[in-house]
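Next comes a single protein record:
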Amino acid sequence: MYEIIDGFVIYLTDVKKASANTIMSYQRDLVKFNKFAESQGVMDIRKMNQTNLNSYMLYMEKEQFATSTISRNIATLKAFYGYLYREGYIAENPALQLKAPKIEKKIPEILTMAEVDLLLSQPAVNTNKGLRDKAMLELLYATGIRVSELISLKLSDVNLNASYIHCQDFNKDRVVPFGNVAKNALKVYIRDARPAMVANNEEDALFTNCNGIPMSRQGFWKLLKKYAKNAGIQSDITPHTLRHSFAAHLVANGADLRSVQEMLGHSDISTTQIYARMNGQHIREVYAKAHPRA
C-alpha cells in the first residue's frame, strides 16, 4: 500500500508545505509501520483499527524504542490517519485515541563560559576562512539561533548599525540582537573576507563555503567539530550546544525568561524554563560542594 503513503507525501508537500525533514521523517515512519502491519497479516494499512495501532505501540515499547521515537511515530500516525479520514479513504479514524508517552526533558549539555571563550578563539583570523568561521561562531553564540537559521541568513538580514539580525523561523519572523564582539567579527568578515569568498556579486548568502556557494549544515558541523577538538573540549559538542549555552548563560546572569524565549523563538515558555531549572541545579551543586553543613 505504498501508493497510499505516496499520496500522503504529496499532500504534505503540496498542501501542508511541510519541510523536507518532516516529510522524510513521516515517510520513514510509515514505511516501518506498513511492514509491521504486513507482519500482522494486514496487507492494507487502511484496515488497521485502534487495537492494531495499540499493538504497534506495545511492539515499539517491547523493542525498547526511545520515548521520543514512539511519540514521533504517534504524531505520524495521527497525521496520516487524519489525512485518510478527511480524504474519505476510511470511515473512522483509529488514531484518535493514541496518546504520546510523557517525555522526560533531559538537562541539555552546555559549555562553561571558559570553554566558549576557548572555542571562539580557535579560528585563525589572518585568513578569509578563519574570519568567516570566527564570525559564524561568534554570531551563533551571541544570538542562540539554530544552525539552520545561521546558514540561511542573507547579507540583507544583518543590520550592523543597530546590531541585530532578522531571522525567519518556520514562517515566523523575529529580530535577535547581538553584542559588540559578534558585531566586530561580522564587520571584519563582511568587509575583508566575504567579497573574496562569494562566487559572484549577486550572492546574498551571508556565509558561503570556499567555493562561493551558501554554507551547508554539514560544512558548519565539520568546522565546529574541528575547532572543538583543537580547543581540547571533551564533550560531544553540536551546533545546538552553543544555542543551549547561550540561553543558560543568559539566564544564569539574570536575563528574564520571556526575553530569552523571544530570542530563541520558542512558542511555549515551558521549553525555555528548562534553563531556569539548570540554573537552580547549578546553585544546588555549588551549595553541596561548598556549604559546611551540606
Q: What stands out?
A: The chain has 13 helices and three strands. Strands lie at 158-159, 164-169, 172-177.
